[in-house]
């Protein structure tokens, strides 16, 4: 079957999609967006997390046919227009939260969603929000640091932005 | 320094000196595109940070953009998908294999069995005892029998299901008793098939006797004796990036493989004979590696993808699913251990006696090295005057076991550290004091007779970890269920929760042992690019996440006084870098980068002397210039180099070691030792048997932290894998069959299971190591598990002789309580 | 394999009538795992994502009509008042990402004894109704009749789950679940409990400890009788250790668990008794506070 949807703001089309294929497979193998990762393909690791119509979901558990005409945003779409790293991306690099990096794309999307909802989450809120994203390298400590850093920068940016607006 | 540099090798690595950086496009098929190949080209990074700083990872930006190409991201026009048929039985004779229906499936390009293998049929890391595809016999659940290449994974899956295999199912040999009685239960490998010192289902054996050994006379010297049997379950590395890679057939009849591995050259060494190719025609490039932890030391899909590519003439990609991954790599050896310790009334150890039985499963993998570690490190970081050790690895029809972070030492540490706590209780001593009283230090002898000739601050680590402030007690007035055992599962609102604290310390060796010359090669090139001096570092080191690439760049900056460093993709165009394992890469390949950079520095300064007639003896490179300490800056490197490049390759060998004597275990067997001490604080819901680790503190001597941020990250990650082994991680095998090959039932710690992990690092330089550094990756994985179990014991009063500790062990059944 | 994409509920019912073996998919959190791991190859997949009314709920003050595909995250955010037990259960489902996709309809469709919704639905009362629809019409199936075997429910091949009708809570409700880690676990066992002061009854639900989700009938009856006989609904007096203990024992006796990789039968029984005692204590404490503040 043919599936057309929007990926990171651009229309994409995939042909000859097998009906049992996941969104993750379509992204990785058919439309050139391999950033979302294939660690478990059973919704247990979060490494394939993408926004589907602004809601973070495991793309391995979305059937390709279900995204027809919908909007998908992946890790590749988290950067700025000018090619700069997004705030969450930069914080992960700066805090040393990236080791092998296989969990990173999913964590970035999930963290982005968390901070969109609550720019200043408590540690317990961060842990709850990221409890579906497994990391095998870091022991999560640097990931906590990265989210706190992103939160601080976001809040500082909002304060600065607010001041300018006034 | 014992590191030897073989200057004559610098030209012999095949690395060449030209500007050939054509990785990623060097395939003979003129590959139009390999998707997301940015990390398969040079990564350039500018920074001021040399060693001791914490510059950002050169690959970090690509990784957070989703542009870093992992092995499973490889994509090639016209590529096929490979898949293996695996055995549902742990032990069987294969009576027939019929591939005709599978071949007839539209979209299937090839179906192969062992009969299609062009070269040698067996391979192996240490012992070539494993068939690339099963030959007449199945020795473990999940052994691969046949391969399919097809146009889509689903086509391949359907075809795999159409391969008809007729089995004669046999009773698997799975228990220690069965393995050690082959006359009754049979052989996993027939004795005539043994390719090493194996006998009677024992793959490898190491004995050790030191002092007077353990005799009745020695036992009589002890006032207190503590003994017990301990058990460690089968842990999985559970790296997140599944085994995967892309094999591209080349016009020269060779093959290019883009692969996630821990050691490119040893992969090639095992692959080439099976593929019937000379090694130089098997070219490997490291694709992005999604974690390893030992699980990529052995081959997984490498040979299979190449066989299919050879047969079809098309690029072939194989990506394991998570369940296949559990069958596709070796695991941590499960262990059954008997330990007996004797001590005087004042707490001095008199003797240690241990028998450690490791289940190696169907094939040897790294079993011999695991046995060597267990025997030689099994007494722990303690001075024990009389020791007797006996370690064996069994052949069985269980899953193969091999390398996993801290191997041999992890299992033993659970035994000896539990013994230390029990001994302390028996003596009425503080468990930390007992450990400090017996702690080894520099100058002491290992039971192998090897002198500890570098700092061994075991007592100091314990002192520091005990001095760290404790976390506040549970606030019962303002409970957040997310912080309690069970968390969001809402099992307790404070009921049944008891806090416990436990301590432990561990020892691990660094580098390959027992006579293995696991040298590393590095090529460093210095030239002017865009008006700036740029150092390029080219090694075959497998960056698996540990941050080796960051450290290589730091070393190049420190030695060459440049800011711009280019990391060349790791491949087999340069000499071996050895394995990314045994905590060895910074020591070994970092050391090789240091040697090569020093050689480049010397050559550049010589060039200056020839040109300018400098006579100063205090010349070095700094800030992009040749600098004399007395006379100041002499010339910029840009001017001195001009159009020239200096491109040198060096090998780094660690000091030689020898194999342990098989009967006495004596010998200078290890390169370096490393130590970590932990304190765990846990809250246990004693009614439900649920555990929440509240804090896990680590203090480790790292010799020299080349990159403190990465060092701390390694220690925290190592602690977390130890946490997993303590309370949740186990591959459950019943009658040889794996029962939980998924992330639904093989559980690894989430962020809600993982506590704050305060880390303190000591830097006591090892005079034998580059920059005095000490390998860091494994020590915390060795030491942290026993501290967590000790804390649970402290909270519950239970004996807990088996890990992982499960809820039922704390409630309805209590192993070791009887 | 066919991929059917009805745009409306009527189209969905028509598609299911035409393809009774089609596997409905909504959040995909069960179905796609089976697809990815090659467990299941249905002749057709029936995607319900476009049927928007499935993600809607309504509350008439007495009963919440919960669309089959309202994701767990919205149950937590929007329905923890009227459906506190189900909201607590929803909070234990998988991960945040899973909770953004999965809904009660999927749990009911799969009918796994480990489904997290089931104990909460059972505890919510015997008048919880599963609204099953087909081109032939709509059936309201009492929750007690819905589960018929291991991963089997009583739906006809042409039926789809439209909604669940759950009485608005008239008393405190709780849910507890055992897992061997602190997030993202399939239940080793689970227990849902609800006080229904208006009817003078209590509700229980046991998960992962029998071939199907089930209630602890004797435990419910025992507690109902004790509460009535001793006038505890009115007095709000403490229950006493004996009653709590007995209730736990009866819950334990109602289970018929097995040993598997996730836990032993003995442990499951033991843990159910503990969870039963604790959830009873929590709810009763809340109830006492309620009647005291009302007094």
What does this structure look like?
The complex is a heterotrimer of chains A (166), B (818) and C (295). Chain A is built from 5 helices and 5 strands; from the N terminus they run ββαβββαααα. A 5-stranded mixed beta sheet of chain A has the order 2-1-5-3-4, with helices on both faces. Chain A starts with a strand and ends with a helix. Chain A has 166 residues and is of the alpha+beta class. Chain A folds into 2 domains: 3-77, Ubiquitin-like (UB roll) (Roll), CATH 3.10.20.30; 87-165, [2Fe-2S]-binding domain (DNA polymerase, domain 1, Orthogonal Bundle). Chain B folds into 4 domains: 35-68 and 518-652, Aldehyde Oxidoreductase, domain 4, CATH 3.30.365.10; 80-170 and 249-319, Aldehyde Oxidoreductase, domain 3 (Alpha-Beta Complex), CATH 3.90.1170; 176-237 and 331-410, 2-Layer Sandwich (Aldehyde Oxidoreductase, domain 4); 457-506 and 671-810, 2-Layer Sandwich (Aldehyde Oxidoreductase, domain 4). Chain B starts with 42 loop residues before the first strand and ends in a 15-residue tail after the last strand. Chain C has a 5-stranded antiparallel beta sheet. Chain C is α+β, with helices and mostly antiparallel strands and 295 residues long. The model of chain C has no long low-confidence stretch (mean pLDDT 97). Chains in contact: A-B, A-C, B-C. Chains A and B meet through helix 1, helix 2, helix 3, helix 4 and helix 5 of A and helix 1 and helix 17 of B.
Structural topology:
The complex is a heterotrimer of chains A (166), B (818) and C (295).
Chain A: E1 3-7, E2 10-14, H1 23-30, E3 49-52, E4 55-58, E5 71-73, H2 87-94, H3 104-117, H4 123-129, H5 141-165
Parallel strand pairs in A: 1-5
Antiparallel strand pairs in A: 1-2, 3-4, 3-5
Chain B: E1 43-46, H1 60-65, E2 80-86, E3 92-98, H2 100-103, E4 108-112, E5 122-123, E6 130-131, E7 137-138, E8 144-150, H3 153-162, E9 164-169, H4 176-179, H5 182-185, E10 202-210, H6 216-220, E11 224-232, E12 244-249, E13 255-259, H7 264-275, E14 282-286, H8 302-312, E15 316-319, H9 322-328, E16 331-332, E17 335-343, E18 349-359, H10 367-377, E19 386-394, E20 401-402, H11 409-427, H12 431-438, H13 458-467, E21 497-510, E22 520-529, E23 532-539, H14 548-560, E24 564-567, H15 585-612, E25 619-622, E26 625-628, E27 632-636, H16 637-641, E28 646-652, E29 672-685, E30 690-701, H17 708-727, E31 733-734, E32 737-738, E33 759-762, H18 779-796, E34 802-803
Chain C: E1 2-4, H1 9-18, E2 23-25, H2 31-36, E3 44-47, E4 57-59, E5 63-67, H3 72-79, H4 84-91, H5 96-99, H6 104-110, H7 117-123, E6 129-134, E7 137-142, H8 143-146, E8 147-149, E9 152-153, E10 160-167, E11 173-178, E12 189-196, E13 201-207, H9 217-229, H10 232-235, H11 241-254, H12 265-294
Parallel strand pairs in C: 1-3, 2-3
Antiparallel strand pairs in C: 4-5, 5-10, 6-7, 6-10, 8-9, 11-12, 12-13
């Amino acid at each position: 079957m043919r599936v057309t949807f929007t990926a990171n703001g651009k229309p994409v089309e995939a042909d000859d999609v097998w009906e049992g294929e996941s969104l993750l497979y379509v992204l990785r193998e058919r439309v050139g967006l391999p950033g979302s990762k294939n660690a478990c393909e059973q919704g247990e690791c979060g490494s394939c997390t993408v926004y589907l119509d602004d809601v973070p979901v495991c793309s391995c558990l979305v059937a390709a046919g279900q995204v027809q005409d919908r909007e998908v945003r992946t890790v590749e779409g988290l950067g700025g227009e000018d090619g700069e790293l997004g705030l969450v991306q930069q914080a992960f690099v700066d805090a040393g939260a990236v080791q092998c990096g296989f969990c990173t794309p999913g964590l970035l999307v999930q963290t982005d969603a968390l901070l969109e909802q609550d720019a200043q989450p408590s540690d317990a809120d961060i842990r709850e929000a990221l409890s579906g994203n497994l990391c095998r390298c870091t022991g999560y400590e640097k990931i906590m640091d990265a989210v706190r850093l992103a939160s601080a920068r976001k809040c500082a940016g909002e304060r600065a932005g607010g001041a300018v607006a006034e | 320094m014992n590191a030897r540099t073989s200057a004559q090798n610098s030209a012999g690595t095949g690395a060449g000196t030209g500007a050939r950086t054509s990785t990623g496009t060097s395939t003979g098929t003129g590959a139009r595109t390999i998707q997301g190949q940015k990390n398969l080209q040079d990564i350039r990074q500018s920074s001021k940070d040399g060693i001791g700083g914490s510059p950002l990872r050169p690959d970090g930006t690509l990784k957070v953009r989703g542009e870093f190409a992992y092995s499973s991201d490889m994509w090639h026009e016209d590529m096929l998908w490979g898949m293996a048929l695996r055995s549902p039985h742990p032990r069987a004779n294969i009576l027939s294999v019929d591939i005709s229906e599978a071949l007839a499936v539209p979209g299937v390009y090839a179906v192969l069995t062992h009969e299609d293998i062009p070269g040698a049929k067996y391979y192996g890391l240490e012992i070539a005892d494993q068939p690339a595809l099963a030959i007449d016999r199945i020795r473990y659940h999940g052994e691969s029998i046949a391969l399919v290449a097809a146009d889509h994974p689903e086509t391949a899956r359907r075809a795999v299901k159409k391969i008809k295999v007729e089995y004669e199912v046999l009773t698997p040999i799975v228990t220690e008793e069965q393995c050690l009685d082959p006359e009754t239960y049979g052989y996993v490998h027939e004795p005539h098939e043994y390719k090493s010192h194996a006998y009677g289902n024992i793959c490898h054996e190491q004995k050790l006797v030191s002092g007077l050994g353990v005799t009745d006379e020695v036992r009589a010297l002890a006032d207190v004796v503590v003994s017990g049997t301990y058990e460690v379950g089968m842990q999985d590395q559970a790296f997140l990036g599944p085994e995967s890679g892309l094999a591209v057939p080349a016009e020269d009849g060779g093959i290019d493989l883009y692969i996630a591995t821990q050691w490119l050259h040893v992969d090639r060494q095992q692959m080439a004979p099976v593929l019937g190719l000379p090694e130089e025609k098997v070219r490997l490039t490291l694709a992005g590696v999604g974690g390893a932890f030992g699980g990529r030391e052995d081959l997984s899909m490498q040979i299979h993808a190449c066989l299919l590519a050879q047969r079809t003439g098309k690029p072939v990609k194989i990506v394991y699913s998570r369940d296949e991954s559990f069958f596709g790599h070796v695991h941590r050896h499960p262990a059954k251990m008997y330990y007996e310790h004797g001590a005087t009334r004042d707490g001095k150890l008199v003797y240690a006696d241990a028998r450690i039985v490791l289940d190696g499963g169907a094939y040897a993998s790294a079993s011999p090295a695991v046995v060597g570690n267990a025997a030689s490190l099994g007494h722990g970081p303690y001075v024990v005057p009389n020791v007797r050790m006996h370690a064996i690895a069994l052949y069985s029809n269980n899953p193969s076991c091999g390398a996993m972070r801290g191997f041999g030492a992890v299992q033993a540490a659970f035994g000896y550290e539990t013994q230390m706590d029990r001994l302390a209780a028996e003596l009425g001593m503080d468990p930390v004091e007992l450990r400090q009283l017996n702690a080894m230090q520099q100058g002491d002898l290992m039971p192998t007779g090897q002198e500890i000739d570098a700092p061994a601050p075991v007592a100091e680590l314990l002192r520091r970890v005990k001095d760290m402030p404790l976390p506040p007690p549970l606030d019962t007035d303002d409970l957040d269920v997310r912080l309690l055992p069970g968390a969001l599962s809402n099992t307790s609102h404070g009921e049944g929760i008891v806090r416990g604290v436990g301590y432990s310390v561990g020892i691990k060796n660094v580098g390959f042992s027992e006579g293995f010359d696991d040298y590393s090669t590095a090529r460093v090139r210095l030239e002017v690019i865009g008006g700036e001096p740029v150092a390029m570092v080219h090694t075959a080191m497998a960056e698996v996440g540990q941050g080796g690439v960051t450290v290589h760049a730091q070393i190049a900056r420190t030695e060459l006084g440049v800011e711009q460093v280019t990391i060349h993709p790791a491949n087999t165009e340069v000499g071996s870098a050895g394995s990314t394992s045994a905590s060895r890469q910074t020591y070994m390949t970092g050391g090789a980068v240091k040697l090569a950079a020093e050689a480049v520095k010397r050559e550049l300064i010589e060039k200056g002397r020839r040109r300018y007639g400098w006579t100063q003896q205090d010349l070095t490179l700094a800030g992009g210039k040749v600098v004399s300490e007395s006379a100041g800056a002499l010339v910029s490197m840009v001017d001195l180099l001009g159009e020239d490049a200096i491109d040198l390759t060096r090998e780094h060998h660690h000091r030689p070691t020898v194999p342990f004597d098989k009967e006495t275990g004596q010998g200078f067997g290890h390169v370096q030792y490393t130590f970590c001490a932990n304190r765990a604080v846990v809250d246990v819901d004693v009614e439900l048997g649920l555990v929440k680790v509240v804090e896990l503190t680590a203090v480790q001597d790292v010799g020299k932290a080349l990159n403190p941020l990465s060092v701390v990250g390694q220690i925290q990650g190592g602690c977390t894998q130890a946490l997993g082994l303590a309370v949740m991680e186990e591959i459950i095998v019943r009658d040889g069959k794996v029962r939980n090959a998924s992330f639904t039932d093989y559980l690894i710690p989430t962020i809600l299971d993982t506590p704050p992990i305060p880390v303190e690092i000591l830097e006591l330089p090892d005079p034998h190591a580059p920059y005095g550094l000490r390998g860091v990756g494994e020590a915390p994985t060795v030491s942290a598990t026993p501290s967590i179990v000790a804390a649970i014991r402290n909270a519950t009063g239970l004996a807990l002789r088996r890990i992982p500790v499960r809820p039922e062990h704390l409630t309805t059944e209590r192993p070791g309580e009887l | 394999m066919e991929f059917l994409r009805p745009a409306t509920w009527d189209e969905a019912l028509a598609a299911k009538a035409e393809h009774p073996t089609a596997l409905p998919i909504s959040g995909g959190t069960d179905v796609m795992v089976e697809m990815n791991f090659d467990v299941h190859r249905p002749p057709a997949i029936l995607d319900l994502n476009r049927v928007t009314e499935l993600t809607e709920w309504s509350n008439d003050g007495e009963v919440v009509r919960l669309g089959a595909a309202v994701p767990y995250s919205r149950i937590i955010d929007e329905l923890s008042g009227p459906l506190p037990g189900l909201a607590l259960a929803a909070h234990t489902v998988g991960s945040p990402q899973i909770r953004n996709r999965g809904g009660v309809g999927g749990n009911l469709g799969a009918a796994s004894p480990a489904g997290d919704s089931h104990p909460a639905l059972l505890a919510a009362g015997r008048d919880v109704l599963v609204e099953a629809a087909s081109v032939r019409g709509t059936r309201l199936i009492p929750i007690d009749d819905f589960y018929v075997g291991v991963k089997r429910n009583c739906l006809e091949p042409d039926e789809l789950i439209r909604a669940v009708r759950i009485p608005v809570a008239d008393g405190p409700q709780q849910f507890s679940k055992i897992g061997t880690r602190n997030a993202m676990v399939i239940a080793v066992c689970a227990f849902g409990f609800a006080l229904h002061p208006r009817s003078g009854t209590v509700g229980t639900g046991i998960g992962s400890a029998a071939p199907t989700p089930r209630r602890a009938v004797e435990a419910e009856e025992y507690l109902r009788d004790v509460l009535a006989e001793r006038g505890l609904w009115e007095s709000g007096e403490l229950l006493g250790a004996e009653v709590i203990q007995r209730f736990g024992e009866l819950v334990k006796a109602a289970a018929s668990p097995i040993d598997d990789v996730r836990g032993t039968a003995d442990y499951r029984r033991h843990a159910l008794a503990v969870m039963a005692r604790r959830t009873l204590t929590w709810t009763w404490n809340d109830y006492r506070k309620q009647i005291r503040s009302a007094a």
